[in-house]
Amino acid sequence: MTQDELKQRVAEAALEYVEDGMIVGVGTGSTVNFFIDALARIKGRIDGAVSSSEASSTRLRAHGIPVYELNAVGPLPVYIDGADESDPQLCLTKGGGGALTREKIVAAASERFVCIADASKLVERLGRFPLPVEVIPMARSHVARQLLKLGGQPVWREQFVTDNGNLILDVHGLQIDDPRGLERAINDIAGVVCNGLFALRPADVLLLASAEGVRRITPA
Ligand SMILES: O=C[C@H](O)[C@H](O)[C@H](O)COP(=O)(O)O
C-alpha cells in the first residue's frame, strides 16, 4: 500500500469517533486532509467543525462544512489530528506543517484527542523528527541561542510564516528522554509561543494504519 492509501485508511477509521450533531475538532496536514474528505460524506449528520489552521478551514468550507470559531462553541467532544511522531505513551511531535499552536489550543479544548497516522510515525523515543518551535519574529536569535543550550540545533524555516504571523525554528538533534520536562523548558524561553511537543496533553487514542489494517493504541 502507498503512504497515501494508509493515510486514507486511517482517516476513514477515525469516522468511528464522530457522532451525530457533533462539532468536530479538526487538525491539519496531509492525513487530516483525507479525514476532511471523509467527513464531507457524512456532513449532513454533524453540526460543523472547529479547525486548527486556515488550510483546513478552507478545505472544510470547500466541502460545505460550517467552520466555527473556538470562542463561539467552547469545549469540543473530539479532536482528530495527525502527528509527525508518537511514542508508546502517545506523546507526540507535531508542527511539521507549522500549525502547532492552534493545534495545541484545539486539542486542549477537546475532551478526546484521536491521533491518526501511518505506522511509520510510531517510535520508541521522540526526537528523530526535528521539533518545531513557533517564535515571535523579534525573538528568533535569542530563542535559537537558548535552544542550543538545551542541546538542539535550531534551523530557521525561512520563507514560512505561521497563521499567527510568527516564525518556526526546527530543532534537530534533541535527546527527548523527558518529553514533558522539555515541553515546559522550551515554553519557558521568552519569545516562544509554543513548541511541537504534545506531552503535557498527549493523545488519548492513536489510530495507526499499516498494510494489515488499523490498530487502536491507548497509552502504554
Ligand atoms: O503542523 C502540522 C501538523 O502538526 C500535522 O498534523 C503533522 O505535521 C502531520 O502531518 P501529516 O499528516 O501531513 O504527516
From TrEMBL:
This is Ribose-5-phosphate isomerase A. InterPro entries: NagB/RpiA_transferase-like, Ribose5P_isomerase_typA_subgr, Ribose5P_isomerase_type_A. Belongs to the ribose 5-phosphate isomerase family. It comes from the Bacteria. Catalyzes the reversible conversion of ribose-5-phosphate to ribulose 5-phosphate. Pathway: Carbohydrate degradation; pentose phosphate pathway; D-ribose 5-phosphate from D-ribulose 5-phosphate (non-oxidative stage): step 1/1. GO terms for cellular component: cytosol. CDD domains: RPI_A. One of its GO terms (molecular function) is ribose-5-phosphate isomerase activity. It catalyses: aldehydo-D-ribose 5-phosphate = D-ribulose 5-phosphate. It comes from Plasticicumulans acidivorans. HAMAP family: Rib_5P_isom_A.
